[in-house]
Design a protein that fits this description.
244 residues, 2 domains, six-stranded mixed beta sheet, 18 strands, five-stranded mixed beta sheet
Length: 244
C-alpha cells in the first residue's frame, strides 16, 4: 500500500494553501465551554482514491513563532472517499494552550482500497432546546447486503465564514445496522459558544464495512432567522428550526 506524506503549513489568520490534492481547509482555534483549547478543521480528498489512517500533525507556536510542542490527532472519519471531507479536532488543556499564538499543520495518510458507499442518512433535523443546547437528529439506512458494524455519525458545523466551528462524533445505540434496516440517531452538539453563528453543517455516517454516500448539497433550513444550508447525503429536506 503506497504511503503519501505531504506538508501543509497554516498560520492562524492565513488562508490555507494546498500542496496536493488532499489538503486541510477551514481550520481555526477556539476555547471550549469547559476551558479546553481546540484546533478544528477538515481534510478534503480531491484524489481519485480513498484515504485512510489519516493523521494531522500540529506544531504549536508562541508569539515569536517558536515551537512550543507538537501534537497529533486523527480524522474523525476513518475513510475519506474521493470528493469527500473528514473533520478533525485537537483538544488541549488550558495549561497546555497558555502560550499558543499560532500553529502549523501537516497531513499524513495512506491510500485505501475503496469501500461500498451504502450507508445513507435519509433524514436530519436540527433543533435547539430551551437551554440553548443544539442537537441533530435523523435516520440512517444500510442499503448494503451485510450488517454494518461499529456505526458512527460525524457532524461538522460551520460558521458564517465557512470555517469549521465545532465537530463531534457519536456511536448510535446499538452501533450496528442490519442490511436494509434503518435507525434513529441523535447527535448532541458541544460548546454552545461555537454554535450561535453556525451557517451550515454536514453529516457523515460510516461503519467498519462501509463508507458514507458522497455528500450532496441540498436545500436550506432556517436557523434563528438565518440561512442554513444542510448537507445530508442525497436526500433533500427543508424546514424550520424546532425549539422545545
Amino acid at each position: 500500500m503506497e504511503k503519501i506524506f505531504i506538508i501543509i503549513i497554516i498560520f492562524a489568520g492565513m488562508i490555507p494553501l494546498a500542496f496536493g490534492e488532499a489538503y486541510i481547509q477551514n481550520d481555526q482555534k477556539y476555547i471550549g465551554d469547559d476551558g479546553t483549547f481546540h484546533i478544528v478543521g477538515e481534510i478534503k480528498n480531491n484524489l481519485d482514491a480513498p484515504l485512510t489512517q489519516i493523521n494531522v500533525l500540529v506544531t504549536l507556536l508562541d508569539e515569536n513563532m517558536q515551537m512550543i510542542a507538537t501534537k497529533e490527532t486523527n480524522s474523525l472519519v476513518n475513510t475519506i472517499m474521493p470528493g469527500m471531507k473528514g473533520p478533525f479536532d485537537l483538544v488541549l488543556t488550558n495549561n497546555e494552550a497558555k502560550k499558543i499564538k499560532s500553529y502549523s499543520l501537516e497531513l499524513d495518510y495512506k491510500i485505501s482500497p475503496p469501500k461500498n458507499q451504502v450507508i445513507e442518512i435519509t433524514k436530519s433535523e436540527l433543533s435547539r432546546d430551551s437551554h440553548n443546547n443544539l442537537s441533530i437528529s435523523g435516520t440512517v439506512i444500510n442499503r448494503g447486503d451485510i450488517t454494518a458494524n461499529t456505526m458512527a455519525i460525524t457532524a461538522t458545523l460551520y460558521d458564517k465564514e465557512g470555517k469549521v466551528a465545532v465537530v463531534t462524533r457519536i456511536h448510535p445505540e446499538p452501533d450496528y445496522l442490519r442490511a436494509e434496516d434503518n435507525a434513529f440517531f441523535l447527535v448532541p452538539i458541544p460548546d454552545k459558544s461555537q454554535t450561535s453563528g453556525i451557517n451550515k453543517y454536514t453529516l457523515i455516517a460510516e461503519s467498519e464495512e462501509y463508507a458514507a454516500v458522497p455528500e450532496f448539497p441540498v436545500g436550506t433550513l432556517v436557523l434563528l432567522g438565518g440561512a442554513f444550508s444542510a448537507y445530508i447525503g442525497v436526500v433533500r429536506y427543508s424546514g424550520n428550526l424546532i425549539t422545545n
